[in-house]
Amino acid sequence: MKCQYCEKPATFHITELTEPNGPQVMHLCEEHARGFLQKDNASPAVSVAGALAKQLNLGQTKKELAELDRKECPVCGISFFEFRSTGRLGCPYDYTHFESDLEPLLINIHDSLEHTGKRPRRAAASADSQAIMIQLRREMEEAIEREDYERASEIRDELRKIENAGIEAGEDDAKSAAKKTKGDSKKSSGDRS
């Protein structure tokens, strides 16, 4: 959908409730939304619009927004602009790297910074090892581009070690769970006789 005032993509969809005319829906780009939310009216919507403008950091200058958009994760290389465009982060380290920029967004969406939902019983690998693996894969690609094949093979071997360590840890968890299940079934079958 495009902005009502220009050809840019509409990123703000504002519904204004007016008595005689009924709800008015506006589709605005960031620039026109900033103008709309900052204009000085005596209507009650102004206080709501002002609060929304503060929450969305619309007071930031173009220079500040451009600086933020250029900020990149050192592990996966995603920029904050890419995150804003896609709505997806590139790696677990992004939560740490973009922490100060993500906090207001997370609070707005989830009313909290802490995860309160379900979690897997056992993770395949920790966030740290995933971040390390992403960094190593990136370094390996760069080494291949530079035709430094020795370094690329060293990195490949390092990646395999990390992957195998994760698989072995998962197998150990599965084996201990299987032993526990067998032990429980022996106890219960022994109780029946």
UniProtKB/TrEMBL annotation:
Residues 172-193 have a biased composition (Basic and acidic residues). InterPro entries: UVR_dom, UVR_dom_sf, YacH. One of its GO terms (molecular function) is cadmium ion binding. It comes from the Bacteria. PANTHER family: PROTEIN-ARGININE KINASE ACTIVATOR PROTEIN. Residues 130-165 form the UVR domain. One of its GO terms (biological process) is stress response to cadmium ion. This is UvrB/uvrC motif protein. Residues 165-193 are annotated as: Disordered. Keywords: DNA damage, SOS response. PROSITE patterns: UVR.
